[in-house]
Design a protein that fits this description.
By secondary structure, the protein is α+β, with helices and mostly antiparallel strands. The protein is built from 3 helices and 16 strands. Strands 9, 10, 11, 12 and 13 form a 5-stranded antiparallel sheet that branches. Strands 1-2-3-4 form a 4-stranded antiparallel sheet, covered by helices on one side. Strands 5-6-7-8 form a 4-stranded antiparallel sheet, with no helix packed on it.
Length: 279
């Protein structure tokens, strides 16, 4: 890889990462990983070294994600203050390239798309290419911090699903969402946290389970303990008890079960039986 091209690639990624990373985190520099600065004379970076650098970037922040399957590598970088209205966007790269393959934009009620949660949940639309997921838990669709989650095609970048929180202030869109194929229809599903949901108790929290195929709401899991913040994180764990249904790990990060904000982690059954027939 030519030095000038390498420098432009690192510049693009470093600028986006600097916007997106938490204040206390610092992305590693090329020199820290490779031993030399980007664009340094007489230094050529191998493709494998560039990929390794971006893996280390991804490990340093919740706002950078990498997924490799065979010869395909997706790199997602969230930039929550970017875009025409400075309400966020997600850059999606097909490996370490100088230009993104496509850009996922915020919508009219957006707040900070790409601020934290992005993932590769699997092939939602059945076209043979894994798809992309990103959230804006501050989205103002029904008032401040309603929250929204988006799924986009990994093939074209076209939006597949737009999922919105039920109420103002619930901060819908927490967690990586990866649930596995809960209903047995051959497509991965989405488990999405709303840690400030207050429908049953103030800041009790909720998690929503959606079909990844069509966005249908399959089930909700609601906490009735005030301040428990159930749904601070939510992810599929497979069938841990071998009862034929998939299970979830869901956190209540600010639970006061053993003192203020001591937190707790719950392993719960989805309670959803898989379909016997897969289309």
């Amino acid at each position: 890889m030519r030095a000038a091209a390498w420098a432009s690639i690192v510049s693009a990624f470093t600028i986006s990462a600097a916007v997106a990373l938490p204040a206390l985190a610092a992305p590693p520099t090329p020199k820290e990983v490779l031993g030399y600065d980007a664009g340094e004379d007489y230094k050529l970076a191998r493709y494998e070294d560039v990929v390794d650098y971006f893996h280390k970037l991804a490990a340093s922040s919740d706002r950078i994600r990498m997924f490799t399957s065979g010869k395909t590598t997706f790199i997602m970088i969230g930039a929550p203050a970017a875009g025409p209205h400075k309400t966020g966007r997600v850059y999606v790269y097909d490996g370490p390239g100088a230009k993104p393959r496509f850009v996922l934009e915020s919508d009219a009620t957006g707040a900070a798309l790409g601020y934290m949660f992005m993932s590769i949940p699997g092939d939602l639309d059945g076209d043979g290419v894994v798809d992309l997921y990103a959230t804006d838990f501050g989205n103002r669709a029904k008032g401040a911090s309603t929250g929204r989650a988006y799924a986009a095609s990994g093939k074209t970048g076209a939006r597949l699903l737009t999922l919105t929180g039920e109420t103002q202030g619930e901060a819908f869109g927490i967690g990586p969402s990866t649930a596995g194929d809960v209903d047995g229809d051959g497509r991965p599903d989405l488990i999405i946290g709303a840690w400030q949901y207050a429908g049953a108790a103030v800041s009790g929290g909720r998690a929503y389970l959606y079909s990844g195929k069509d966005g249908k709401l399959l089930k909700t899991y609601t906490c009735r303990i005030p301040g428990d913040t159930f749904g601070f994180d939510a992810v599929g764990m497979g069938d841990t008890d071998r009862d034929g249904t998939l299970d979830f790990l869901i956190t209540s990060a600010w639970s006061g079960i053993k003192g203020n904000h001591s937190g707790r982690v719950l392993l719960i059954s989805s309670g959803v039986q898989k379909n016997k027939k897969t289309p």
